[in-house]
Amino acid sequence: MDTPVKPAPNLICAAPDIFDGAAFDAALKAAIANKEKSARTSLLDHLKAAQKQGRARIADAFRADPYQSRPTTQAYCHLTDCLVDAAFRTAQRLLHPNPNPTKGERIALLAVGGYGRGEMAPFSDVDLLFLTPYKITPWAESVIEATLYMLWDLKLKVGHSSRTVQDCIRLGGEDFTIRTAMLEHRFLLGDQDLASALDTRLRADLFQGTEREFIGAKLAERDARHLRQGQRYVVEPNVKEGKGGLRDLQSLFWIGKYIYKVQDAAELVPLGLFTQEEFHSFVKAEDFLWAVRCHLHLLTGRPTEQLTFDMQVAVAEAMGYQDKAGRRGVEIFMQTYFLAATDVGDLTRIFLTGLEAVHLKDEPLLERLFKRKPRIKPGFEVIHNRIAIADDVAFLADKLNLLRIFEEALRTGMLIHPDAMRLIKSNLSLIDEEMRTTPEAQRIFVDLLLKHGNPERALRRMNELGVLAAFIPEFKHIVAMMQFNMYHSYTVDEHTIQCIAQLAMIEKNELVEDLPVASSILKRGVNRKVLYVALLLHDIGKGRPEDHAILGAQMVRKIAPRLGLKQDEVDTIEWLVRYHLLMSDMAQKRDIADPRTVRDFAKAVQTVKRLDLLCVLTVCDIRGVGPNVWNNWKAVLIRALYRQTKRALEDGMEALTREGRGTVAKKALRDALSDWPRKDLQIETARHYEPYWQGLHVTAHVAFANLLRNTDEDKIGIDLHPDEDRDATRICFVMPDHHGIFARLTGALALVGANVVDARSYTTKDGFITDAFWVQDADGNPYDPARLPRLRKMIERTLAGEVITREAMRDRDKIKKREKAFKVPTHITFDNDGSDIYTIIEVDTRDRAGLLHDLTRTLAASNVYIANAVIATYGEQVVDTFYVKDMFGLKYFSESKQASLEKKLRAAIAEGTERAGG
Asked: For 129-143, 433-447, 754-768, which range has the lowest pLDDT when averaged over its residues?
């Protein structure tokens, strides 16, 4: 009589709906009785149909109840058990019957690894161990082979090994991965006594006495995994292997099982390793992460573990997240994900502390090196080189101790003991309104920012434990808040802490070479308290329908006084938060060579004191966005805007006149070309209009002078120069002027994969165009000089008409699959006040290859003269700003003309987006 597979008690749907065991038993019985040659094929067809139906029923039930991950993983495991059972019995009874096996022909079939644990995602691997008493006999080999071929025919991804008990002990002693897999073995079929013998030998001969060794190996494995996967708040996390992911929880359970022989995480509670509340967090985090992983598998139809941007949207929808109060459903989903990952980190710390207490985990390295304990303030003690609380009751009697411990940690340079963290986290209610407004609490918090040189350490730990959100309740809203775009590499809270870390590094003179202006500002002296608090609060208004800068400034009025700041300091912080994007926007989205830009910015800033603060805040804000966001291009723009504005504020606005700049630029050119004949120099300085002299550096003036001197009516002059200071390649073009040439140049550059970051177009009095473009390669670096000859050739071919840009671009501007999830609404604005001469058209939309060409071609077709273009990219979003005049040299004041142009630009964007598959 066959023993049916015993299902887990809690399945997402009824066991017979997942797999009809009785139907298969009948089919197998009939096949054995009939002894047909085609019996294997018919049984395999039966199993394929049963597998398909079972998988469909589990998936449907899970989609209907998308958070029921535990019953779902157990259901997939049950289905796999049934299929493995069916394949093994078919091999044993139909394909290779052996009614009287010898003692050496016994086989036990065991599930190992995740399958052994009884948890399976839809496309998890099936890890099997075929256990034999001695060397494998020919009959056993045939049975194993037949079983595996059936499972492979069912398209299961099977990992398998065939070993004796002694093999398992030997190999487990050599390899921790094998040892871990066997730690989670589960008997499925065959000889029960053989499986029991393995159980006994593993515990006695392999696990016993090697606990410390196993823990060390698992923690080293975890650290290496985290190094590969990145930090907890990485924007496209790996659900299985990432920091705070499922593997971290599994590692805790493995260690618990290895040392304490527990079969379930709940058994860790009576052992004192977790409280009931912490165990509840364990279950909640595990259930959520498994739900995410199962949805990922089902949506992709394969074992996908990484939450890429496109999958984040799909999983959020599958789990029922919806847009709410100015935030996308996917952002709310990812905030939940990151909070779960943080809980996993907390649980890991707590668990490892419990192990330290019984000396199973090695002492931290520092303690082994330096046994002399540092001096510490009363109320605290040092355990394992970490600050611990001497008396819990006395500690909690004074609410301020919840802040003092962070001050003591920074003062001594020590970490906080996890038991102390546990106590803090469970008593956050002590941080109330009375405590927040105590002068001593204000002093401690501000000192954490200003006094010890590494405020980010205290802030990050306070944030993880919930202390920061308890002390500044408004901060809670942005904890683990993801910004669903390709620009920001961190959640809003982590970005804030990264910004403060940048400021601390500048203060310590660690970035003098990279940031000479910001470093010199801090050296001269600013109000540090204002700067740190402004950085801490600059994004506090994010995640709500209102403009986060305006809302944040309003929130500052309440928060800053609570931190003990004086009214004039509060006013300055409010202004900084309200305008924290102003300098970045002016530098990256406007032409800072236009005196009007600097004049308007100077009027908004009003004082050098404010300019200094805003400049440093802007630099820290951009550098805190992600590892590769700050570059020389942005640095040059910010520095230039700062220096020009400072000069205007100190010497008066008259210092910004066009004429004054033109005179200086012409003198610089004469000095640079001192070997030219005087007559040639006179021709060169007389042939250009005034904007040309103010808009370009003398190096570009020299390049254009040489090109114009050697050009004629039929020739295109091109000069390519790697501008290392700006992380870009400058390309200067000289050719006879004709309509639409700027658009043709943008098309040629798009075809060779050059990303334009800035462009200027000028016409000489004698009919030539002098256009300068600054371009980068796909990685945001200057073009490699070795690639420049090929670039020149491609540009000449496209300008000569050998290649039609629009046709050639058709297959090149496709949006990548993982980036399609990003939605960037298009905004087009017309500004007639930002420049004395030009109308400024700002196009804020989704970035893609060929966009600039589409826009400039549309403007050219409408007889719009483009003087220059400024391009600012923020991940998948781009802001293309054009300084334009109409064909009569006038601004676009007419609303009807503006509306007509906007309509045409929107049509070009929509057409290009459709072509790119966006």
From this structure: 754-768
Q: How far apart are CA 370 and CA 417, in angstroms?
A: 17
Task: Give Cα 561 to chain centroid, integer Å.
Answer: 34
CA–CA–CA angle 466, 305, 109 (5° rounding): 115
Quote the pLDDT of residue 351. 81
Alpha carbons 256 and 423: distance in angstroms, whole number: 23
Q: Are 615 and 639 in contact (CB under 8 A)?
A: no
What one-character-per-residue DSSP string does 858-904 give? HHHHTTPEEEEEEEEEETTEEEEEEEEE-TTS-----HHHHHHHHHH
Q: What is the 3-state secondary structure (H, E, C) of 199-228?
A: HHHHHHHHHCCCHHHHHHHHHHHHHHHHHH
For residues 814 and 859, the answer to whether their CB atoms sit within 8 Å is no
How many beta carbons lie within 10 A of that of residue 223, not counting itself? 10
Q: From residue 226, give the alpha-carbon distance in Å to each of 114, 229, 488, 620.
A: 20, 5, 20, 26
Q: How far apart are CA 708 and CA 722, in angstroms?
A: 20
pLDDT tens, residue by residue, 497-539: 999 999 999 999 999 999 999 999 999 999 999 999 999 999 9
Helix (H, G, I), strand (E, B) or coil at 674: coil
813 by DSSP, 3-state: which? coil
Q: In whole angstroms, how far apart are CA 62 and each of 53, 59, 67, 308, 914?
A: 14, 5, 8, 22, 35
Per-residue tokens: 533 = 């608090």
Average pLDDT of the residues in 681-698: 89
User: At residue 367, does pLDDT exceed 60?
Assistant: no
**Polymer length in residues for the chain:** 918
Residue 735 burial (CB count, 10 A): 21
CA–CA separation, 255 and 355 (whole Å): 10
pLDDT the model gives residue 233: 58
Contact 443, 481 (CB under 8 A): no
Q: Is the pLDDT of residue 70 over 70?
A: yes
The pLDDT score that the predictor gives to residue 797 is: 81
**Which pLDDT tens digit goes with each residue over 620-649?**
999 999 888 898 889 999 999 999 999 999
Supply 466's token pair.
């919930």
Residue 732 per-residue DSSP state: E
Pairing of strands 380-383, 186-190: unpaired
Q: Euclidean distance between the first and final Cα of the chain, in Å? A: 60
**What Å distances lie between residue 95 and 136, 453, 565, CA to CA?**
18, 73, 83
Least confident span in 258-272, 314-328, 544-558, 654-668:
654-668
- Residue 609 — φ and ψ, nearest 5°? -60, -50
- The amino acid sitting at 770 is T
Strand order in the sheet with 877-885: 717-723, 728-736, 768-776, 755-763, 865-874, 877-885, 839-846, 827-831
Amino acid at 43: L
Phi and psi at residue 355, in whole multiples of 5°?
-70, -40
What mean pLDDT comes out for the span 873-887? 90
**Residue given tokens 């008690």 in the structure block:** 9
pLDDT tens sequence across 770-795: 999 999 887 788 877 777 787 778 77
DSSP strand pairing (158-164 vs 126-132): parallel
Is 855 in contact with 843 (CB distance < 8 Å)? yes
- Spatial contact of 126 and 115, defined as CB atoms under 8 Å apart: yes
Beta-ladder partners of 866: 884
Contact of 842 with 879, CB cutoff 8 Å: yes
Q: Evaluate whether 629 touches 622 at the Cβ level (below 8 Å).
A: yes
DSSP letter string, 87-147: HHHIIIIIIS--SS--GGG--EEEE-HHHHHT---TT--EEEEEEESSSPPHHHHHHHHHH
